[in-house]
Amino acid sequence: MMNYRPPFSHNFAVIGILAVTGAIAQPPTPSSQMGELVAGNTAFAIDLYCQLRSNAGNIIFSPSSISTSLAMTYAGAKGKTADEIAKTFHFTLSQESLHPAFAALGESLKEVQQKGQVTLAEANSLWPQEGYKFLPDFLSMAPRCFEWVI
User: Fold this and answer.
1) Calculated CA dihedral for residues 131, 135, 139, 144, nearest 10 degrees
2) Best CA proximity match to 19, nearest among 101, 123, 95
3) Longest Cα separation, the chain
4) What is the distance in angstroms between the CA of the first residue and the CA of the last residue of the chain?
5) Residue closest to 67 by CA, chosen among 40, 97, 93
6) pLDDT reported for residue 6
7) What is the separation of C-alpha 18 from the centre of its chain, rounded to a whole number of angstroms?
8) C-alpha distances in Å from residue 33, one per residue of 57, 99, 110
9) What number of CA atoms fall less than 13 Å from residue 147's CA on the CB side?
């Protein structure tokens, strides 16, 4: 007889983003883009959990925070690095659509919080190497699309 191990055999907590569409006002980006972003973030969370679940003990991680942080990094990535980030994090939207979709998700979460339904606190930031300067395009995009976590 084979030992069957259910996929959720540990006590664990996944700290992430839950969006209740009925409680969210019309986002400033098409809902299909927000849906695609959420689907990708969910796929990444499941992939990450499948990697972590083999460790003994409880698991606490925040796929939302990881995905958001790497989305900011992805904004400055090019070529093979950008391709690998997109594949790992299931970023199926173009760079031009992905970052505004994150902004719309952040706005939707703010609206839910203002209604008193949830509280979300994230503290993500990027720290450049000493002597390295961020490109102007990135500096204009990051506060506009990720101000809810910067």
Assistant:
1) -150
2) 101
3) 61
4) 52
5) 40
6) 42
7) 11
8) 36, 10, 18
9) 9
pTM: 0.71
Alpha carbons 122 and 39: distance in angstroms, whole number: 20
- State the CATH architecture for 12-146: 2-Layer Sandwich (3.30)
pLDDT at 3 over 80: no
Token pair 């990708």 is at which residue?
Answer: 40
Q: Which amino acid, residue 137?
A: D
Per-residue pLDDT tens for 101-138? 998 988 888 888 888 877 777 777 777 889 888 888 88
Helices (H), 53-123: 63-74, 79-89, 95-114
